[in-house]
Design a protein that fits this description.
- The structure is a single chain.
- The chain is flat, with a radius of gyration of 23 Å.
- The chain has a three-stranded mixed beta sheet. A two-stranded antiparallel sheet has the order 1-2.
- With 169 residues, it is mainly alpha-helical.
- Helix content is 49%, strand content 11%.
- The chain has six helices and five strands; from the N terminus they run βββααββαααα.
- Strand 4 and strand 5 form a beta hairpin.
Length: 169
């Protein structure tokens, strides 16, 4: 086996691990490892949330600030979507336009598509524990609405016919 495909061996058998591609990554460390080999623990936590087990209390989770911010953003979005989807007044797109006013720059058909796409991405985010899916979808639609509001895309697009071969320099 080459070094690139050889699974990373964990230094402690007590730490749980998960396989990411062909490399095993540790997801659990003992609290004593924070002082003995903090660089390894911090490197893992920078990549993904890790569990720090303690003998004298409940386990803790160590993660990067950006991972925590992504989780907070996803929960904020979830709160907005739950409020909108449980409302009995109007459509999902109308409720979301009320919560996210930038959606008003989109056409009615695009508002419907945006609402469906964001809701589907949020469901996928929760199902896969990948907050970036919903946040990226919401950001993409907000940027589209911003571009539409700025007048971009109002002119018809001129497509070039055929592909001309260009010689290599």
């Amino acid at each position: 086996m080459s070094a690139a495909t050889k699974p990373h061996e964990t230094s402690r058998s007590s730490g749980s691990s998960r396989i990411s591609g062909s490399v095993k990554t540790r997801t659990s460390f003992q609290s004593s490892e924070l002082s003995r080999s903090s660089a390894e623990v911090f490197a893992a936590a920078a990549d993904h949330p890790v569990q720090v087990t303690r003998r004298d209390g409940e386990s803790l989770v160590l993660m990067s600030e950006s991972a925590d911010a992504a989780r907070r953003s996803l929960l904020e979005l979830a709160a907005q979507l739950v409020a909108v989807s449980t409302s009995t007044e109007g459509t999902l797109a109308a409720g979301m336009s009320d919560r996210f006013p930038w959606m008003l720059a989109l056409s009615p058909a695009d508002r419907e598509e945006c609402a469906a796409d964001v809701l589907a991405a949020a469901r996928a985010s929760f199902a896969t524990d990948q907050p970036h899916l919903a946040i990226a979808e919401l950001t993409s639609w907000r940027e589209t609405a911003t571009a539409v509001a700025a007048g971009l895309g109002a002119e018809p697009t001129e497509w070039l016919e055929g592909a001309d071969a260009i010689e290599r320099p």
